[in-house]
Specification:
Layout: H1 2-32, H2 37-42, H3 48-57, H4 64-75, H5 90-125, H6 130-144, H7 147-161, H8 181-210, H9 213-220, H10 225-253, H11 257-262, H12 268-277, H13 281-309
Helix pairs in contact: 1-13, 5-6, 5-8, 5-10, 5-12, 5-13, 6-8, 7-8, 8-10, 10-13, 12-13
Length: about 325
């Protein structure tokens, strides 16, 4: 137990260091962009004097390291800062955008786990046969299609040609759960590539586990094939799949920019795009911190799951 606590402590410290590095990198890259929030607020025909006045009012004329230090000091007290573009707290941007993104992520994961694990086990059971070749070919083909192209194709067929589903989420606001038809196409796009990756990982893990000495020994003892498959082989196949699932959830919760932009969903990806366009550094920094914390927590959880199911593997993210 003490070894597990020290391992968790090391992972948390490493995650905190990685989050700090990400924030510093984001701040430096944002500072390197041409223009700033004052230029964005000045309009299409900015007056240099007006830009200077806006920059002074926003305290953008202060040295970058001072602004970063003040923001970091506020962060220690739970203050993510204030938006330069609107004056609203950055935390409201995160909470407003988190709802739609969390809804999309939850629906995607709820379909991803049974579909990916089920297809992977099915392919492994029929290794080298027609079912295995079909599953492998379809997953490889779907994975090769870019999300944007797949999304445009689905909109063209199911929204514009057939008229079965709405093409975007415009007009629905953040209450997407009350309009389930607007969620079908985005969830299908979000599900398309992760389910292919998870299926192939589970298939490979199941094949390796079923060919291992302990599985052969279990069959020699007369243990039923179903128990060998699901009680012994599947837990060992889940270990690497848990890492992939954690990365997928991280990808979903940190804002899928392409899908949210394509279907006009007001999630975290949309918030990030708008903040970058407006050079709204506090919002970008706040999102970077939120994304970093989510990544650390999910990777730690995935490592714990992997150690539980396959403690000898000691899989690390």
């Amino acid at each position: 137990m003490s070894g597990l606590r020290s391992w968790i402590a090391r992972r948390l410290l490493l995650g905190m260091a990685q989050t700090a590095a990400v924030v510093l990198l984001v701040f430096a890259l944002t500072e390197a962009l041409p223009g700033d929030a004052a230029v964005a607020l000045a309009g299409d025909q900015p007056d240099p004097e007006r830009i200077a006045a806006i920059r002074e009012a926003m305290q953008l004329d202060r040295p970058a390291h001072e602004r970063l230090a003040d923001w970091a000091a506020g962060l220690l007290h739970g203050d993510f800062g204030t938006s330069l573009a609107s004056g609203r707290p950055v935390s409201t941007y995160i909470t407003d955008g988190f709802g739609p993104t969390l809804l999309l992520a939850t629906l995607t994961v709820a379909l991803l786990v049974p579909a990916g694990v089920g297809l992977g086990v099915l392919a492994a059971r029929h290794e080298g046969k027609a079912v295995d070749r079909l599953v492998s070919s379809v997953t490889l083909g779907v994975y090769a299609v870019p999300e944007f192209a797949f999304g445009v194709l689905l909109i063209t067929v199911f929204a514009l040609r057939l008229g079965w589903l709405p093409p975007t989420a415009v007009g629905y606001g953040t209450d997407l759960l009350a309009h389930p038809a607007a969620l079908v196409l985005p969830v299908l796009i979000l599900l398309s590539r992760p389910v292919c990756s998870l299926t192939r990982l589970v298939r490979a893990g199941m094949i390796d586990a079923l060919a291992s000495p302990y599985a052969a020994q279990a069959r020699r003892y007369g243990i039923p094939a179903a128990r060998v498959r699901y009680g012994h082989a599947l837990p060992n196949a889940i270990a690497p799949a848990a890492q992939q699932l954690a990365r997928t959830i991280d990808w979903l919760l940190c804002g899928v920019i392409v899908v949210e932009a394509l279907y006009v969903i007001p999630g975290l990806g949309t918030v990030l795009m708008n903040a970058v366009a407006e050079r709204d550094v506090p919002v970008v920094q706040g999102l970077a911190v939120a994304f970093g914390v989510v990544t650390v927590v999910l990777n730690l959880g995935a490592d714990l799951v992997a150690r539980h199911f396959a403690p000898r593997a000691e899989v690390a993210a």
